[in-house]
Amino acid sequence: MPENENNSIEINDNEDTLECTHGLHRFIHARYWLTWTGLGLLYLTVVWLPYRWQMKIGRLLGRLVRAVSRKRRRIVNTNLKLCFPELSQDQCEKLDKEHFESLGISLIEFGIAFWMSNKKLQRLSHVKGIENLTQAHQKGNGVILLAGHFTTLEVAIRLLTTHSPISIHGIYREQKNPLFNAMLLRHRHENDAKPISRKKTHSLIGSLKEGSPVFYLPDQDFGTKYRSEFIPFFGVPAATITATTRLAKLSNADVVPVSFYRLDDNKGYHLEFHPALDNFPSDSDTADLTRINHCLEELIKEKPEQYFWFHRRFKTRPEGEETVY
Question: Nearest-5° angle of CA 191, CA 195, CA 199?
């Protein structure tokens, strides 16, 4: 879903949580009827149809998106060629098609995250390494759950809160659609996933110092607004924010990589907490960021079609280089 930083959702400075998660009656206005219709269809799809049919519908949606989104296709194709130069044209096109199918499924997975029962979700869950989260949390310094932007992101948050014995906090960016934004916040609160505004850095640090695990995704290009360095990402210089290593230094939090992806043959979802990074952070931000990007590359290689390739990961270029898009 598209995102926007400027939204009418208010921030409560005292509790550091996002307000207006209930009171959906505020969105009865006609301009939201199309959104209500879409949410209603999504609800019926999740509640009434078997999981395998939900996946089929998602793939069809993805093919439709691919057919009408020339701009996004160009971005995806550019990213794939940059990151996987060893692939042939046919292999690249196959990965492109699979990515858009995965993207279509992600739309259905918003409904799964919102309305699927815990009992059914448990049957679809394959969880490993929960002891790595527990061991890191027992140190009392918080845990940075390091991950990337995958098409399974929203359902992964639900899986995290369902299987983690500890309340998960996570960075949140407001959505353009106020109704969808309120719905998203409502369900995250109901599932014990505390959202922290991306603008509230002090809240993020506070959560870590309190000992809470924070779900953190540092793999987007924020341009020159944030402190960043050009670090190789699949061999291509990418503007990489230094926040992960700075947060680890400020809070003494362990960094635990998390992989999550959709399994083949409609078998559900894989969620794995990997061992905490040892000797992190080091004395070199560049070395730390290189290690983070390498870690993210390894997570992506598990299911490359499920990564958000439609993001312009390389939009900021080193001085003197032309745009790749």
Answer: 175
> Long-range contacts of range 186-191, CB-CB < 8 Å, 24 or more positions apart?
186/21, 186/22, 186/24, 187/113, 187/114, 188/21, 188/157, 189/17, 189/21, 191/113, 191/157, 191/158, 191/161, 191/162
3-state SS assignment for residue 70: helix
Residue with tokens 């001085």: 319
Per-residue pLDDT, 199: 66
User: Cα(58)–Cα(66) distance, rounded to whole angstroms?
Assistant: 12
Q: Answer whether 0.90 is exceeded by the pTM.
A: no
Bridge partners for 197 per DSSP: 172
Q: What SS3 class is residue 170?
A: strand
61/11: higher pLDDT? 61
Residue (of 16, 61, 4, 14) closest to 205 by Cα position: 16
Here the tokens at position 140 are 């009392």
For residue 321 the two structure tokens come to 């280089």
* CA pair distance 312, 152, nearest whole angstrom: 19
